[in-house]
Amino acid sequence: MYEFNDGASRDYGTDVKREVGKIFFFTEKWGVFIVRKHMLRKMLLMCAAAVLASGCSSITNLTPSQLPRSDSGLYPFEVVFESKATALADDSIQAYLILDDQMIKMQRTPLLTNRWEVLAPIPVGTESVSYRYKINYQWKDFGKRRENSRLSEPFYLNVTE
Fold first, then answer.
1. Which of 13, 34, 52 is a domain's end point?
2. d(Cα 156, Cα 154) in Å, to the nearest integer?
3. What's the CATH number where 63 sits?
4. CA distance 51 to 45
5. Do 102 and 132 sit in the same domain of this protein?
6. What gap in Å lies between CA 78 and CA 64, rounded to an integer?
7. Are residues 135 and 152 located together in one domain of the fold?
8. Do 82 and 127 fall within a single domain?
9. Are residues 108 and 48 in the same domain?
10. Residue 117 CB coordination number (10 Å)
């Protein structure tokens, strides 16, 4: 007998098949629920997606939110990209600054391999700019390299007099 949430007891037969038949089916021979193949694939894909999206990498903005106006018109932008993924190809990582719909290639710092910086121009008279970081990288997938990228949340820089 199987007790359902409504308190009713039912036989393992057709009632159980009707209740859980959408995902599982019941075999009376072994007395177990077996996941249907197509649902098993969906569950495995959802679990894999959850693992991949569970914060395996992070983008940290090191640029202050406020900088004094520069005579040269160039302002420093710095970012750190950290990843726990072992399949990530470290030599393929490249960071970009997206400023006013323009992608500016950033340079890796000499001492820290996960940190990038760039001096980017901000037009005279501009008081505030919105910017993002884009990190392009490759990861190893059974011997082949596949490309991927991460886009940061928007950040804002205020230029003061």
1. 52
2. 7
3. 2.60.40.10
4. 10
5. yes
6. 9
7. yes
8. yes
9. no
10. 18
Q: What amino acid is encoded at 53 in this protein? A: A
Sequence length of the chain is 161
H-assigned helices in the chain: 14-20, 37-52
Instruction: Answer yes or no: is pLDDT of 22 > 60.
Output: no
Q: Report yes or no: 119 and 76 within 8 Å, Cβ to Cβ.
A: yes
Q: Which residue range forms the structural domain that includes residue 126? A: 57-160
Are the CB atoms for 137 and 56 separated by under 8 Å?
no
Amino acid identity, position 55: G
Q: How far out from the chain centre does Cα 63 lie?
A: 21
Q: Show the tokens assigned to 73.
A: 């018109």
Tell which residue, 47, 5, 30, has the closest CA to residue 20.
5
| Domain count across the chain | 2
This prediction has a pTM of 0.65
Q: Write out pLDDT tens, residues 100-118.
A: 889 999 999 999 889 999 9
